[in-house]
Task: structure prediction
Amino acid sequence: HEDVLKSPGAYAVFKNFGDSSINFDLRFWTDRFDRWWLVASEVTVMVYDALKDAGVEIPFPQRVVHLRSADESAARALAAEPPAESKKEKAGD
Result:
C-alpha cells in the first residue's frame, strides 16, 4: 500500500487460536496520521484479497438450529413453499 512506510518494515504477530481461526495482528507504520484508520482498512482488504487469490479460505462459524417442537402455525410457515419469484432466483444461481 502506498501509505505504508517501508521502514520500519511491516510484520505479522501470531496472537492465538480462535474457534475457527488462527489470529494474527498485522503491524505496519504510516505517516498519514489523518487517515491511519483508512490505511488500516485498505491493508486488511488487500490481505483478504491476496489470501482469496491464493485459494486460502477464511472459516466462519456455522450455526445449526434444531427445532424439537414448534407452534403449529410456525411449523406450517417453515414448511411453506417460497414465492414463485424466489424459485426463479434460486434456479438462476
Helices lie at 36-53, 72-79, 84-91. The chain has three helices and two strands.
